[in-house]
Design brief:
mainly alpha, single chain
């Protein structure tokens, strides 16, 4: 890329690196391994941070799929990963020209995180209510009839 600075700085390479980071980080977190560093996967810092931010959408899809399967513990783990990504991104306070629009990405992560937290909370509460209703129904069926 050194020989082609126009191509390198056109945005195409950064976009590709961001997508690569998103895939690498999502895979690592979902399968319980360590999130690779920018050096591990050979990307620049700006696309790395933005790629981490983009994982929020992938985690949301993952969580919604797990909710449908009733796998709430995996949802909690993925939500924690989303929160950790947000905690990292919110600490980066540099001009957008230096970070490639990271503030916008961070704002998106916050919105996705809050919607996902709400969806997961409602699903867990509904599951608990369904279990309590089932227990009530069973206890009523066991009562001797008069």
């Amino acid at each position: 890329m050194v020989d082609y600075p126009d191509l390198r700085h056109s945005g195409f390479v950064d976009d590709a690196q961001k997508e690569y980071v998103e895939a690498s980080a999502t895979y690592a977190i979902i399968f319980g391994s360590i999130v690779p560093t920018p050096e591990d996967i050979g990307v620049d810092d700006t696309p790395y941070l933005n790629g981490l931010g983009e994982t929020a959408g992938e985690f949301r899809r993952f969580i919604l799929d797990r909710i449908r399967e009733g796998e709430f513990q995996r949802c909690e783990d993925a939500l924690l990963a989303m929160e950790n990504v947000y905690r990292v991104l919110v600490t980066i306070d540099f001009p957008d020209a230096m970070t490639g629009g990271l503030r916008r990405t961070t704002d998106m992560v916050r919105g996705v995180l809050e919607r996902t937290r709400g969806d997961l909370t409602m699903a867990i509460r509904q599951e608990k209510l369904a279990e309590q209703l089932k227990q009530l129904q069973e206890s009523l069926q066991q009562r001797p009839s008069a």
